[in-house]
Amino acid sequence: MAEAYSALALLRHGVTGRSWTPMWRERPLERGYPVVIIGGGVHGLATAYYLAANHGVTNVAVLDKGYLGGGGSGRNTAILRSNYLTVEGVRFYDRSLELYRGMASALNFNVMFSRRGHLTLAHSDTSLRTMRWRAEVNKASGVDSEVIGPDEVKRLVPEMDTSATARYPVLGALHHPPGGIVRHDAVVWGYARAADRLGVHLHQHTEVTGIEVSGGRVTGVRTNRGPIATPVVLNATAGWASTVSDMAGVPLPVQTFPLQAAVTEPVKPFLRTVVVSGTLHVYVSQTARGELVFGASVDPFASYSTRGSLEFTEGLAGHVLQLMPSLAKLRLLRQWAGLCDMTPDFAPVMGATDVAGFFLDVGWGTYGFKAGPVAGEAMAECIATGQTPEIISAFGLDRFAQGRLVGEKGAAAVGH
Amino acid sequence: MSMRLGPRVGEVIDRDEPLSFTWNGRTYPGYAGDTIASALAACGVRVFSRSFKYHRPRGLLTASHLDPGCMVQVDDEPNVRGAHRRVRPGMDVRSQDTWPTLSFDVKAANELARRMLPAGFYYKTFMSPGWLWPAYERVLERFAHGGVVGPGKVSALDGNERYDKRHAHPDVLVAGGGPAGMAAAVTAARSGCSVMLVEEELELGGHLRWGDDVDLTALSELRGRVAATPGIEVLTDAVVLGRYDGNEISVLQRGLPHVAERLVKARARTLVAAPGLIERPYVFAGNDVPGVMLSTAVRRLVNLHAVKPGDRAVVLTANADGDATALDLERAGVEVTRVDARRGGDVTRALGRGRVRAVELGDGRRVECDLLVTATGWTSAVSLLTMAGDQPRYDDTAARFRPDASRLPSDVMATGGVVGDGSCAQLVAHGEATGREAARRSAQSSVTASAAPPPLPVEPHPALFRGRTHGMVDFSEDVSSKDLFTAVEEGFRCPELAKRYTTATMGPAQGKLESVNVVAIIAEATGAAIAETGTTTWRPPYAPVSLGALAGRLREPTRLSPLASWHHSHGAAPLVAGAWIRPDHYGDPVAEAASVRDGVGIIDVTPIGKIDLRGPDVSRLLNLVYVNKWSKLEVGRVRYGVMCGEDGVVIDDGVTGRLAEDRYLMSTTSSGAVTVWEWLESWLQTERPQWRVHATPVTTSYASINVAGPRSRDLLARVVDDVDVAPEAFPYMHVRTGRLAGVPGCVVWRIGFTGELSFELHVPAGYGLHVWERLLEAGRDLGVRPFGVEAQRILRLEKGHLIVGQDTDATTKAYGAALDGLVKLDKDDFVGRPELSWGGQPGDGQRLVGLRMSPDSLVPAEGSQLLDHRGLICGRVTSSRLSPALGRAVCLAQVEAALAEPGRQVTVRLVDGGTARAAVTEQLAQVDPEGVRLRA
Amino acid sequence: MILLPCPWCGPRDADEFGYAGEIRPRPDPSTTTPAEWRGYLYLRRNTAGWTRERWFHRMGCRRYLVLERDTTNNDVRPSTDASSGSGS
Amino acid sequence: MPETTPVIHGPVAPAPPVGVLAGWAVSRRRSGAALTLSDHSLLAKAAVKAPWQGALADVLAVPFAGTLRRTAASTELLLTQPGPGEWLVLAPPGEQTALVTWLERCAADVDELVSVLDVTHGLCLVRLTGAAAPDLLAKECALDLSERRCPDRTALRTAVSRVAADIIRDDRDGNRSYLLACERSSGQYLFDSLLDAGAEYGVEVTGFEPPGVTEQTARAD
Ligand SMILES: Cc1cc2nc3c(=O)[nH]c(=O)nc-3n(C[C@H](O)[C@H](O)[C@H](O)COP(=O)(O)OP(=O)(O)OC[C@H]3O[C@@H](n4cnc5c(N)ncnc54)[C@H](O)[C@@H]3O)c2cc1C
Ligand SMILES: NC(=O)c1ccc[n+]([C@@H]2O[C@H](COP(=O)([O-])OP(=O)(O)OC[C@H]3O[C@@H](n4cnc5c(N)ncnc54)[C@H](O)[C@@H]3O)[C@@H](O)[C@H]2O)c1
Ligand SMILES: Cc1cc2nc3c(=O)[nH]c(=O)nc-3n(C[C@H](O)[C@H](O)[C@H](O)COP(=O)(O)O)c2cc1C
Ligand SMILES: [Zn+2]
To answer: What positions does the domain GCVT N-terminal occupy (chain D) (predicted)?
Structure first.
């Protein structure tokens, strides 16, 4: 049994020099599992953890073709917020924030959730109006969110150019104090460790190459390490969601787009808030290590390539400097890209499908990291009980065939 | 204590040009040609920084761009590579992240708790009590390791601080100006190619520069050939940052006269990577104590900068470069103890803190010294190649990863030390062969790889990564080999995971120095072979690059109406609307609106999209893209139309007029101008290519002026030359063309967005100002005044005219926008028809309605939410203003269809949390719902 | 920036083009069913590999083009004009 | 009829001193710099659309992506085809009626859909002349404008300073020269952008110098 983490444990290990037990174990791949989860990102791991922790379903395998968190979960800008535009969205993401707040102690793993406030800048009267709309929906749902003026923006971010003559003047912002950032890798590892402790099998470098369906039911998966029999498969593969769903014959309303991000060299802390500008397609926060983490909107065309582009960094730098001209000499250290499974209405696709036993937790686009905990909790319930939980009822696949899209599209541009 | 040596043959300092600068407030001397680091080292400075976590004192390690120990703040610039940046007179150089001083740093206390602070310790603690975490967080933040930016510290972009970019299209781009790169460039250019030769350092030459006499002779010969060959553009102090799809290569050029830095974006037909080798550090206890240096660092200091790095040296050598270093040191008067790793010699520990005092050898000996030099092997600089798809393979003989050129695309080649070993002559010959092949590939229209140059030999090298003790692996991140062992133990066995857990290779050097050691140590800890362990992913940029350089000159496309300067000089408040800057108002939007209701006003509506449509099939196109009918539109008439997407969602609206049998002018919303045109083209080019229609955007061929108000006809009558504006001659929803104020070729629409009698004039743009001024002049006695976008918004809202994108959103279908009457389902096909025919049922979705507030003067913010009797959100206010005409609020709202009946009551949730009541109105229009005024 | 081979203008930076997505046959609107139509509207093959898609050369010839692209690495094959099936 | 002939304002604010030429307010500044930029928006301009390789294309006789100088309607014309089946035809200032009439006559003779639009007011046209012109353009445009890829008499459409523009290589007296056309509202931006980019090459503004067009009396503006 793995030991608990604490300052005392650190001290004990430090003094004795005794080594730590692994956070998760490498276990043999079994011939069958009652539940197979494809995708070892935050969604897959959280689902496995809640299946075990909340429903006692522990004999679960999580399969990932790469390393844990090697998908979007390991490469996202880790911005958390719940100031969505629709009531369904606000309620859903607020539950996720709540789980994030309690995560360190629930998982006995410090995920370093940093509640530092989230600012979405408005550079036009149109976006100011959308901010107000969002703020009002948020407040009506009990979420702390308010439109603030340029002076208040300046107070929160002194580097910001709030002059009225700016090409894209800052007319105001949606301020969401509970928003913040988290150590994304820690969330993945925390869930993995906790799931492993409850008996879940984590299989890295195990790629699913086919899904067996017979008589309209899932019966197993094929992998590069051999077949696994299973009646239940969860597709939690985000950017690759279509490729996996294809294996089960379930077409998705998903297009995969690369989303790029970058970090600068570290500098002393000066930016205490998460700043997002939809008009300028940029968001930025400063981590505890001192580097600025930047993101933008998805690449302009669908692709599975994660190589990244030069124009992304050029556009990013130009936009950041329009907001904060004093950062010109700061150096960009690394850029990378991840894949985003975009849906037509910027809302996820969750729940059962027409193929019995084949579940979806996809369509997470550019915003799914923050949803990891609540999605895991809900999908675990969905799989364990066979009932669709109320909190995800708006997100079913059938909404497309019925033409009932989620209204989140309204605030789409750059969300995060 | 001066460590400056007498003149060296290959030195790059100019002894005739002494200078002085400050380091942590004290003045130091140096010479032109010195780097910050060499000037300080010549003055005996040994400690340049403190390490990230434990704040251990750090000195020079590579004495190059990559040196993790010499990151400094120069004036307002953080994280300057002190061992690369040339020192300049008066420079203010400071150490970073030390408090209170570099020599006495409080955070060095961390070192004491080192055993309690293993890699990733923070994941294991600070969890409870949860409320204390923000306080812990502030403490952790203090350890952010870097310089300072922020207001007052970094200057704005001006003068020679500006940045710039340019494109380039060399046939061959050579990355790296060492012997191989120079040879490749010369041969490619001689084959007729345009060549760009890029070298990160300040001069061409690579490793030859600090070599012996033979090297220096080869160097000057090669430099001579480069200079004598036409067609080579040489960029020094310029670094290749990345290789992207399409062989797009980014280069950062520094040290230019006109700009601080310039980003060169090169589309090379062929990239030749000749980046050479990087010497790797050796891992053992104390390997980060100031005075422990790589052999290349020593040779740079001694031979290029004439700096004596110490007085008594131990040289651990495993190769010829180590041997040569020992000789260089001896020649410089340093007492040298050689330890030959090829014969089993080893170093187990460097002792000392601020500087090396002694070294413990593998055989147990202890040697007093102040300099420990290691020459234990190389790393191939593969990062550019991996960006192009290469996957380097570990070579047991060479004890390093080498490129596996078979995975490279045909437009990327590699030469020189990065691919193999050999004498200088062999490397040059390989460079030449590569240059020749690159030229051949560049000349082809579609590049095919053919004969690659014969491979270079690979010389055996002992596999030296970590010695018998644990030491620093990633110097900039303060990650030790012990940390990596711990990570593996905890389950982080895959290098990508171990990297993220320990942060090894995540610092400013990005693993260029240390990634092989990281992999070797992970392999050691997991018991796997290095080859199967594999490296982590390389990513651009190769070297960190300023945001300023990436941004270049900050310019955003801006669109201006022909009247822009008039608006500006008449006090218009600017409104940024996408690329357009429009007048929001001229001081008093309410009075502006009133003048339209009572008399006449004029507004510049140039950004309204205008598309010229010609051809026999235009009416079929209109029938297809608009939801209403167009077949019967007569010449001389205009009609309002709404466009939907294939999903039935409203995407644009506007009026279109028929000017002649086969000629129409379509107008669109300002923001929709471009998208609507592309939308029309997509139908014409992909789904209906047989239709004969030409669609040409002409938005800014015209200045568009709306003349609105009960007196607008009187005003217009005074400026028209040949258009009869009498009500019978020019009825509502008609169009005329003619001459206005002496200007031929004008189009006039009689329409009424403001709800008043109004005419929209489309005037050839160059006459816009003339017509505008004539209107103001001619209408002076009518009280004409210009009005801005805000007044127009008030007016249209009083009239209940919707704005697509404000009163509708990305889910609003035509009937949701209260446009049911317009949708003609009896047309056989129009875009959106299927959805509109299935989805218009009552009770479905939201509807656009008018709202009457109580109290009626209460103006709810746009975006305010509507609540139903259960207190649940049932809609929102989309538009709202105080109506000057009515003296009360006028609002449009989207509300659930079931509530969208006149008289239904809803609750408006106000911004301050309070509520008010509102009733759904009979119609959207609150002023003149019958439309008498606009038909006057 | 990837280069797209325009049949008219030659290879051009992708930012001169507008991306119009994978090519999907449009069902006959007069006979289509909601299920079929919404499949057309929302479902995508989203292939990891070679796809046929439409691009609009906004800043060049102003033509819609049909292009084959490998979405795993953005390699492209020669393109054709969307209406005529040919270029220059 | 109005008393005075109205002055036409181009998309680019003219550098002082300002005069009037063919009804347009123009800069009378004369620069002898090695690299000059001048506003040519007052040239008469017509945009023509017709089937690519159709009958009108034969009449106009200018290849796709090429230019052709010829005399028609007793004025000298510069014909270009920067898009397939899309022509931009330039004529001296004040000649737009003659230009359009001639083009419409050509169109009347062919049996295909042709549109002729007078875009004299709709486009901004500038001329950049000097040996450093390609270097300046290399900052603002991603295309290879070297002699090899873009020789004299090339016309193409691409992005310049992120704005769609026609680039027409039209050397003058052996001097590198480019005409750049973009839609009017972006004209001032493009002009400023080129000036800014060209600062390091010493670019200067020079007024339009007409071949063979009578000047009207100067009127300061
Ligand atoms: C640059 C970037 C920035 C982002 N920023 C934010 C943000 O600030 N806030 C936010 O909330 N969201 C953000 N996102 C989105 C977020 O990262 C994702 O929505 C989220 O991580 C999805 O998690 P997941 O667990 O569903 O999928 P992933 O983490 O992508 O995991 C899917 C896993 O499936 C595996 N897989 C795929 N196919 C197979 C197969 N056939 N067999 C086995 N395994 C397979 C993959 O290897 C992968 O590990 C960002 C995304 C990116 C790329
Ligand atoms: N590395 C060593 O010290 C070493 C070891 C064995 C042999 N040698 C000798 O070194 C020479 C090897 O020749 P070579 O030409 O392959 O290598 P080189 O190391 O001499 O030159 C490579 C050059 O490329 C530059 N460079 C690297 N990355 C760059 C980038 N991204 N952008 C711009 N410039 C970049 C470097 O600054 C360096 O000057 C031979 O003469 C050989 O005998 C050197
Ligand atoms: C929030 C965040 C912060 C990061 N900070 C750093 C950093 O400081 N240094 C670094 O080298 N990489 C940093 N990375 C990037 C990772 O090294 C890596 O590029 C990313 O996880 C994608 O993986 P890949 O590059 O291996 O494909 C960061 C990534 C994220 C998501
Ligand atoms: Zn084209």
So the answer is: 76-208
Reference B469, options B667, B344, B286, B615; nearest CA is B286
Annotated domain spans of chain D? 18-42+122-205, 44-118
Query: What confidence tens digit (pLDDT) does each residue in B271-314 have?
Result: 999 999 999 999 999 999 999 999 999 999 999 999 999 999 99
pLDDT digit string, tens, across residues A31-81: 999 999 999 999 999 999 999 999 999 999 999 999 999 999 999 999 999
Cα–Cα distance list, B108 to A266, B24, B917 (Å) = 19, 19, 65
Residue C83 distance to chain B (closest CA, Å): 5
Q: With contact defined as beta carbons under 8 Å apart, do B671 and B577 qualify?
A: yes
Asked whether at least 3 C-beta pairs link C and B within 8 Å, the reply is: yes
Q: Pick from C26, C56, C81: which is nearest to B678 by CB? A: C56
* Closest among B377, B793, B827 to B605, alpha carbons compared: B793
Number of residues assigned to chain A: 416
Q: A212 and A327: one domain?
A: no
Backbone torsions φ then ψ of B340, nearest 5 degrees: -95, 110
A265 and A327 together in one domain: yes
Per-domain residue ranges for chain B? Answer: 14-104+281-375, 163-277+381-442, 465-545, 601-780, 797-827+836-920
Instruction: Tell me the CA distances in angstroms from B573 to A67, B582, B584, B671, B788, one per residue in order.
Output: 55, 8, 5, 20, 9
For the stretch B181-209, pLDDT in tens is: 999 999 999 999 999 999 999 999 999 99
Which residues from C are below 8 Å from D when comparing CB atoms?
1, 8-9, 12-13, 15-16, 58-63, 88
- Judging contacts by C-beta atoms under 8 Å, the chain D residues touching residue B723 are none
Model confidence over D34-63: pLDDT tens digits?
A: 999 999 999 999 999 999 999 999 999 999
Are A344 and C42 a contacting pair at CB < 8 A?
Answer: yes
Q: What is the mean pLDDT of chain B?
A: 93
The correct answer on CATH 3.40.50.720 for the domain covering B601-780 is no
Does the domain made of D44-118 have the CATH classification 3.30.70.1400?
Answer: yes
pLDDT for the residue numbered A412 = 53
Residues spanned by the domain of A199: 31-79+184-254+345-412
Q: CATH number of D18-42+122-205: 3.30.1360.120, 3.40.440.10, 3.40.50.1010, 3.40.50.2300? A: 3.30.1360.120
Give the ligand at the shortest distance from the Cα of A259.
1
CATH code where residue A261 lies: 3.30.9.10
In angstroms, the CA A35 to CA A50 distance is 13
Domain covering C3-78, topology: Folate-binding fold (3.30.2270)
User: How does pLDDT run across A201-259, given as a tens digit for each residue?
Assistant: 999 999 999 999 999 999 999 999 999 999 999 999 999 999 999 999 999 999 999 99
**Would you state the structure tokens that stand for residue B237, as one six-digit string?**
């102090």
Ligand 2 closest atom vs CA B238: 33
Taking CA–CA distances from D157, the nearest residue in chain C reads C60
Instruction: Quote ipTM for the complex.
Output: 0.96
Alpha-carbon gap, residue A286 to A276, rounded angstroms = 12
Q: Is the Cβ pair A255, C42 closer than 8 Å?
A: no
Task: Identify the CATH number of the domain in which residue A36 sits.
Answer: 3.50.50.60
DSSP B770: H
Interchain CB distance below 8 Å, B685 and C74: no
Q: How far apart are CA B337 and CA B335, in angstroms?
A: 7
Structure tokens, B749: 């629409």
Residues A285 and A398 in one domain: no
Is the pLDDT at D198 greater than 70? The verdict is yes
Mean local confidence (pLDDT), B727-744: 96
Tell whether domain B163-277+381-442 is in CATH 3.50.50.60.
Answer: yes
Q: In chain D, which residues have their Cβ closer than 8 Å to the Cβ of B555? A: 161, 189, 193, 196
